[in-house]
Amino acid sequence: MDRLESLEVYIRVIDLGGFAPAARALKRSPAMIAKHIDTLEASLGTRLLHRSTRALSATDVGLAYYDRARAILAEFEAAHQEAAAQQISPHGVLRIALPGVFSATIGPVLAQFAAENPAISLHLRAENRTVDLLDERIDLAIRGGILPDSSLIAIKLAPISVIVCASPAYVQRRGAPTTLEALSGHDCIAYSERSSGDVWTFVDRRDGTERNIHFPTIRHRANDADGQRALATEGLGLIRLPEPLVRADIAAGRLVTLLSDVPEATRWLHAVYLPGRALPLATRRLIEFLKAHLREI
Question: What is the pLDDT of residue 277?
């Protein structure tokens, strides 16, 4: 039997929850679906599925095999699509989600891409919440910082320099923290769009260890960088933001950098997309363009 066809059958059985719905989707008989699964299990020498008259579920080995099978088919489809589209210009609509905090930095690069690819229409959504790519039909999302564990595919685009800062008035009144341990005794202006805003995670570049700094009392919060900057420049607490967003305030003396000697690991701006399907040529071209034109954020 064709091995790729068997992989497709197996994926459909898992996705649809049974042999009968997979047979209907693939326009094959349930017996043929079962034969593909039996052939796979025989070649592997192990069971991929728990089967009974009322239920079907993947074994532990079967779940791991499912993840690899989806990746293999996605790569095959991508190679096939790329070969077929070598002489075709990228086209179509790209729905892009990007953080509002980075829109001023990323927006001009996206505009340049659109100007150089007139057959592509960009639909941009700049907002600070984390959008659901599947439910909201997003082709590509741009996200910064530490990504949560998920099934999404993530591609590094550019390093992000993140710094802690405060106003000179705050430092004069409360002093400057010189260690990570000292941070929790200071006022933090929290980012209110994520529950993690009350905790700052530092990753040591030397050994990769993480340090979570908890702020037991939060007085001020803001849902965007401009709000955090406004509160910080008034001396109301510490903020932690990408350096380009506070560069002008630091140059003007409205904010000062703190803990500059902490050896923190580089954060990254990522392009993320859903797994399990071939990326359209337009999306691949956009990722390549962003990697080539974005510098340190």
Answer: 67
